[in-house]
Design goal:
- With 250 residues, this protein is mostly helical.
- It has two domains: 95 residues, no CATH class; 134 residues, no CATH class.
- Helix 3 packs antiparallel against helix 4.
- The termini are far apart.
- Keywords: Signal.
């Protein structure tokens, strides 16, 4: 059954056109079956390929999901629709309970993708749905504890994406869902134990403090991310200082 599934996924490259991008955009680093799924632009096919190739091993699935997310970020400039489809699948394929640190890394990349103006223009509904998922994922205690600073950055990007005019118009209910997730996180005692300034940081996000919305008329296709001083590699229990968010093009 697994061989049949992988064969079907590979066949997608023969059936679906390659629109606006090629393997050189970053897919060459992926296994052939997974590369075919990413090229198809079908999130379900990508998720199925990850699960088939991982053989049920959560660590392998996490590695594959991370590779897909990394590829997706490289695709933003040439095919933003394919990029959002790929990160959507990567987030869905990872198990935050089994691999919280890897889930955080995938979510971090996904959060950078969804604040890109080009991505928001071509897939505003997908961006809205992903913003909700990412806000909830970053609020999961095991994921948050892996790196509170990185988790707060994901929350900030999710809120920035969901409040962008294009996304708000296409997904009017998504903003409230993100706000609800962040509000609940700000009152979660487990998160507060990992980072005593959790509530203050989240309140700053919801107050739109120090955040710069990417312009809907921006034609440079730059990615605006909100980064804390701490890096993703930090694994400590969080900083005692409130985060300083900075908008930086990638």
């Amino acid at each position: 059954m697994r061989k049949i599934l992988l064969g079907a996924i590979c066949a997608l490259t023969l059936l679906l056109p390659q629109v606006g991008w090629t393997q050189s955009a970053g897919t060459n680093s992926l296994p052939p079956a997974l590369r075919a799924a990413v090229q198809s632009g079908n999130p379900n096919a990508i998720t199925q390929a990850i699960r088939a190739l991982s053989g049920g091993n959560p660590q392998v699935a996490a590695t594959l999901a991370m590779n897909v997310a990394t590829t997706a970020e490289q695709l933003v400039a040439v095919n933003p629709q394919a990029a959002v489809s790929a990160v959507e699948a990567a987030v869905a394929a990872i198990n935050p309970t089994e691999t919280p640190a890897q889930a955080l890394s995938v979510a971090s990349i996904a959060s950078r993708v969804i604040v890109n103006p080009a991505v928001q223009r071509v897939a505003p509904q997908s961006v809205g749905a992903l913003a909700v998922t990412l806000s909830q994922l970053a609020s999961t205690p095991s994921v948050y504890q892996a790196n509170p600073s990185a988790a707060v950055t994901i929350m900030a990007n999710a809120y920035a994406a969901v409040t962008a005019p294009t996304v708000t118009e296409a997904s009017p209910g998504a903003e409230q869902q993100v706000v609800s997730a962040l509000s609940a996180a700000s009152n979660d005692p487990t998160l507060a134990q990992a980072n005593p300034t959790t509530a203050a940081q989240i309140n700053a996000i919801l107050a739109n403090a120090n955040q710069v919305q990417p312009s809907d008329t921006d034609t440079t296709q730059q990615t605006t991310t909100f980064e804390t001083i701490s890096t993703l590699g930090d694994t400590g229990g969080g900083s005692n200082n409130p985060p300083i968010f900075s908008a930086s093009p990638n």
